[in-house]
Amino acid sequence: MIDRSNISVEERLILALDVPDAHTARALVERLGDSVGFYKIGLELFLSGAYFELADWLSQRGKRVFADLKLFDVPQTVRSAVAQFADKDVTFLTVHGNDAILEAAVAAVGPGLSILAVTALTSLDEADMTDLGFQTDISSLVVSRARRAAEIGCAGVVASGLEASLLREALGDRLLVIVPGIRPGANRAVDDQKRTVDVEEAFEHGADYIVIGRPIRSATDPEAAARAVQARIRSFFA
Predict the structure, then answer these.
(1) Which residues contact 105 (CB under 8 A, 6 or more apart)?
(2) Closest to 157 (Cα-Cα) out of 111, 209, 116, 204
(3) What is the DSSP letter of 197?
(4) Number of neighbouring beta carbons within 10 Å of residue 177
(5) Which residues are tagged catalytic?
(6) Which CATH number is 9-237 given?
(7) pLDDT in tens, 54-105
(8) Exposure string (b/e) for 119-155, b if CB count within 10 Å is 16 or more?
(9) Phi and psi for 181 in degrees, rounded to 5?
(10) 145-154 pLDDT tens trace
(11) pTM
């Protein structure tokens, strides 16, 4: 069982640092100040260079790091890739694949690192899944993948808030649930995210963390936008 009770309210918001380079990322983090304490750094920053340097920079400033790389390759390659995080202060690392890939990832984790299994991207809807060859509804696929991830030893899953309640019904507290695709209020579904939920809706359905990117990054005042989301989270858990 996962202890979900000791998660800091302030760290339930994860800001997606989906920006083109480390300089832009640092500038945004400094602008946000103490309004955000947990950051997701993904593929765009990885390919820009200085990925681990940025992760170290965040850690040195007391920020937690979620490495969202969705590792997907043959098991030995994934095992070796996960091992690269052995001396890094990173909390979460995403892996996307079958049982053998997840098993390799879990076997390679070092102290402090937790593997999150990707279930179904929030940018995909039912039609997209059919095009990809999945002859099942998204909810069934997400629960199936999450169940296997729990059995293998993953700490959590990344899933839409639309499936979070189903995951809690099926698996209880066996996994952390991290919900991306959060679109506060009127900003819902205005970009490439298709399966979105609002802040309170995600937590009502059983999310432990929410990931927000554009609604905060693109705001006129990103710090004010982040503090507004944090206020909503504090109110929900009050």
Answers:
(1) 71, 78, 79, 82, 93, 95, 115, 154
(2) 116
(3) B
(4) 30
(5) 70
(6) 3.20.20.70
(7) 999 999 999 999 999 999 999 999 999 999 999 999 999 999 989 999 999 9
(8) bbbbebeeeebeeeeeeeebbebbbebbbebbebebb
(9) 65, 30
(10) 999 999 999 9
(11) 0.90
